[in-house]
Amino acid sequence: GRVRHYKFDVEYMIRKPDCLEHVVMGINGKFPGPTIRAQVGDTLDIALTNKLSTEGTVIHWHGIRQVGTPWADGTAAISQCAINPGETFHYRFKVDKAGTYFYHGHYGMQRAAGLYGSLIVDLPKGQKEPFHYDGQFNLLLSDLWHTSSHEQEVGLSSIPFRWIGEPQSLLINGRGQFNCSIAAKFINTSLPQCQLKGGEECAPQILHVEPKKTYRIRISSTTSLASLNLAISNHKLRVVEADGNYVEPFSVDDIDIYSGESYSVLLTADQDPTKNYWLSVGVRARKPAIPGQVLTALTLLNYQTISASVFPVSPPPVTPRWDDFDRSKAFTKKIIANIRTPQPPPPPYSHRRIVLLNTQNRVEGFTKWAINNVSLTLPATPYLGSFEFKLNNTFDRKPPPENFPSEYDIFNPPVNANATTGNGVYVFQLNEVVDVILQNANQLTGKGSEIHPWHLHGHDFWVLGYGEGKFKAGEDEKKFNLTHAPLRNTAVIFPYGWTALRFKADNPGVWAFHCHIEPHLHMGMGVIFAEAVHKVKNIPSQALACGLTANNGRHN
Ligand SMILES: O=C1O[C@H]([C@@H](O)CO)C(O)=C1O
Asked: Could you list the residue ranges that cross the membrane (predicted)?
């Protein structure tokens, strides 16, 4: 593979992503950041310069496993020190698997501020995908608030707690139209942002297709909060890839996509070529801020035989009901490993099981999320450096609980909502096979249970199964899918349900495992896995230039 060099300057910029002016984070003057395109086996060398004037930054390469380079994972306080204003940090790592990925900020709530972009890894020349296509598109989906990420962050860590609410706009490749994305308004309105000519910075990017040809549409979601559904009028979508892994192809009218996930779907332009069609992205899984009004982003599928300005005759696809979770589960359960490409099945057994109860809690009056009653707070010294230099006082060396009390009632608000904060880590031996059972529960007050997409750094995991209610040890594992379990890096837990994952601790490093909803992570919804860290070699000193590791761990 070759080495690809990039220079990334991270800065705040004034832009109009949804046709209204906002401050967003950008890279090299671009929002979203530039798309990185590489081939399997390449080494990416990204010199990231922090051009922010008052805060640190890091970038996480979402879905890249960072085999042998855990210090390049881009997680502040975990794999490295946040990069200070004016400083340049070199991320150097190998991309070893073809697929649709993305990158994003992983410090504070910088992803919510717009620090993200696409990362696409192609097969080496001469190698073929297990499916055919004539062209491709890339859609990076995100959500946007009209309050700044700083304002959101302060609200979340205030008493009384101030929730961020639902987004104001959805963006496709950083473009949306505030308040006119609801189909009826899009068609019949006088709002200027709904009357686009096409050259505006917020104008949707149109997908131009030739009749009869097949296109690969890469779709990834870096939303802060929203669970999304994507559909194109009259056209079937054939799902072929999920999180950089080939899946057994299946055709659907629409796909669900949770924050942290990526898919490739094939679309064949086999419909009436004298018409154009809507591509619609709508919010699911959370109650709309305005009852009955589904927040939507739209663009067009244009048959190049006609002008892109020809208005579609049929209305945009209707996003499935937000709380039709049976439908969501039916889609998610269709995703299984591709049978024709060699993908390792999960090891038939695990050495260890960790059950993680997800609850909304209170810590000293603050509203938090906790895992087995511990809400994650990150230490000042990055974990990787603490292990490297055997520092014992930088974080709590007592590992967090591996289960929760059996009498815990997941169907009701917690009897005692008080949790604690913590920064302990789950420690794994090299090649230990670990099962994680993610257990959902009722929210803090009232009746309800939310969706959480969990993302693992440093690995893909096998999704062994999804179930309803409380996981029943000794019984539910009999239903695990050990033959066609899909490999993924993000998996959702459904309301009041559990999700079972298996992974092999074969990548020495310190890895975050967390809810990919940005405010939830900020509120403590994550855990830290440390794997055979003594095997990690050659950590650049630049990664550890802060806290008690600032002087190569020699401090007095
Ligand atoms: O963490 C959250 O807080 C709010 C709500 O539960 C309290 O305002 C919400 O919808 C979340 O997902």
From this structure: none
Rounded mean pLDDT, 57-72: 98
Q: Answer whether 0.95 is exceeded by the pTM.
A: yes
Instruction: Tell me what percent of the chain is helix, strand and coil, each rounded to the nearest 5.
Output: 10, 40, 55
The reply to whether 271 and 413 lie within a common domain is no
Residue 147 sits in the same domain as residue 174:
yes
Domain assignment of residue 23, given as a range? 3-122
405, part of any domain: yes
Residue 193: the pLDDT is: 66
Residue 528 confidence class, pLDDT cut points 50, 70, 90: very high
CATH number of the domain to which 512 belongs: 2.60.40.420
Tell whether 112 and 139 lie within a shared domain: no
| Residue of 153, 164, 322, 367 with the most ligand 1 atoms within 8 Å of its CB, for mutation | 367
At residue 183, does pLDDT exceed 90?
A: no
How far apart, in whole angstroms, are the C-alpha atoms of residue 244 and residue 98?
Answer: 6
Q: What residues are in contact with ligand 1 under a 6 Å CB criterion?
A: 163, 360, 443, 450, 520
Report, as an integer, the average pLDDT of 16-27.
97
Establish if 313 belongs to a structural domain.
yes
> pLDDT of 454-509, one tens digit each?
999 999 999 999 999 999 999 999 999 999 999 999 999 999 999 999 999 999 99
**Are 168 and 240 contained in the same domain?**
yes
Q: How confident is the model at residue 556 (pLDDT cuts 50, 70, 90)?
A: very low
Task: Report how many domains make up the chain.
Answer: 3
* Shared-domain flag, residues 456 and 548: yes
How many angstroms separate the CA atoms of 354 and 473, rounded?
A: 12
Q: Looking at the structure, do residues 220 and 190 belong to the same domain, yes or no?
A: yes
Residue 141 and residue 118 in one domain:
no
Q: Three-state SS for 353?
A: strand
Half-sphere exposure of 102 (CA within 13 A, CB side): 31
Instruction: For residue 294, report the distance from its CA to the centre of ligand 1, in Å.
Output: 19
User: How many angstroms separate the CA atoms of 442 and 520, rounded?
Assistant: 15
CB atoms closer than 10 angstroms to residue 351: 14
* CB-based burial, 205-215: b 16+ in 10 Å, e otherwise: eebebeeeebb
Residue 474, Cβ density class (10 Å: 0-12 exposed, 13-18 middle, ≥19 buried): exposed
Do 369 and 500 share a domain, yes or no? yes
ipTM over the 0.95 cut-off: yes
- The number of angstroms, rounded, from the C-alpha of 191 to the middle of its chain's C-alpha atoms is 32
Q: How far is the CA of 528 from the centre of ligand 1 (A)?
A: 23
403, part of any domain: yes
Torsion of CA 26, 29, 32, 34, to 10 degrees: -120
Q: Is residue 127 part of a domain?
A: no
Q: 393: how many CB neighbours lie within 10 A of its CB?
A: 10
Ligand 1 midpoint to CA 335 (Å): 29
Q: Which of 196, 29, 177, 231 is nearest to 114 (CA)?
A: 29
Question: Which domain-ending residue is among 93, 122, 151?
Answer: 122
